[in-house]
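Q: Sequence in, structure out?
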Amino acid sequence: MLEALGINMYTTLGKCLVEFVANAYDSEAHNVTITIPHEDIEAARTKVRQAAKAEVAAGLRDRFTVLLDTLPNDLKVVIEDDGHGMSWKDVESKFLPLNRKRREGADGTESNIKSETGKRFVMGRKGLGKLAGFGAAENVEVRTKRQGETFATIITLQDSKLKGAANVTDVDIPATYEEGLDPKEQGTRITLSGLKSDAVKERLETLEETIREAFQALRPEDFLVTLNETPLVPQPPEYEFIYPAGGLDERGYASSILTIEDIGDVPLKYFVGFRPRGQHLPARKRGARIYCNNRLAAGPSLFKLPTGMHNFHATDYLECVVEADEFDRAGIDLINTNRTQLREDNEAVRALLEHVSQLMKAAIASHSLFRDKQTSEKLKTDPTAQVLSRIIDTLPRKTRKPAGKLLHALANEHGVDSPAFQELAPAFINSVNATEVLVKLIEARTRPETIEKVAEHLRELSEIERIDVLKLYRGRRDGSRRSKSSGRRARTSGARGVLSASCTTCWKRTRG
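A: Exactly. Output:
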């Protein structure tokens, strides 16, 4: 159980820190301070890895065992909070038992859903967060103190001792006590040592991002996490468009009601933001994140959003945040243990994911209209676009509309002010060869969806030109036939009628 629920579930330092921060929140802490000697860890990791590689090269060890190497014990990660802490009896009866359910009330049901004084809905549920430390370290030291007591309780859990025991309950875990403390002091300090080389490879920026994302819904005035003296306050990104446009509360969220058959109405809070053009998100960050009781419960994911929908590429810029607290306040567990997704084996979660997908779909449609309007306005004011628009106006009437659509599609994709548009648009207007246009589109790394759309407009233009060429050819052919007929009647010296040079050229173009 220790292996499956502790070590194998929390394989990076970031995931471990999130669990300890959640525990601090449930203990009604206002501040959590994390200290990581990152530069020293990097230096030690480099040294340990070099030694391990040399041993692998010499055939002294299996190459995969390098993932299990630990760093010197003097390198420590410390997580300290000012929550209510634990008494020695709490440590024995609440912290150490592996099978304790955090929310189980006296009646055996999951009715204990609030913190000690009732001021917060708790994040914890299964009581497994205490095992998170073993995912990143061999040793986990817990120092904790309750207000009103003059001593702190200290225990040290060692992974090597626990794994080596035939029965984990037989392992002796002695407690020591730090005496003579201020009765007003309270809180818990977790110290990780024997750090696992592979688990602590994340950059500080990545750790900060992981914690911010996990607890984005929290307000720093209520609960503040500090990492190496840097407060991890929310950093709202710049959005070019937010859906819905109106009806947002002071936090920037809209309200929505999810109606589930046989369950009723469930209130939700949400918003959908689109990053500016050119600031596309990494694939792992696109889509919706669902938060329950201020902690990430699922996502980011596009969930049930159909990939074939119009303007799907807008998901490259899409961030959706949903607060669905009611899904973590019921007597049924709807969130997977690793909190990366919701359990889809029930109609409530399926209804939620469908609802969130529809919100994103509506947001994409609204964003598309916003982009179209924005592009139309910029096309009217940009000097290059104005020149190209005047050229399009000189084209035959039937070709103006598809040419205008193509110009708009290029502007919508790249932006009127972009170098790509400034190069591609004139190439289209000035070139009669569609292949040249498509080559330039590919060189500019245009999206496949846009190339397909452009190709469609080019086919439309090509079809119009082909019909016009056929009309020209037929007209000249008929004229040539009449000319030849007259020539035969009036020929002299055996002269024969021939196809005119211009009609021959027209024929070749049509055949081509």
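Residues 432-436, 490-512 have pLDDT under 50 and may be disordered.
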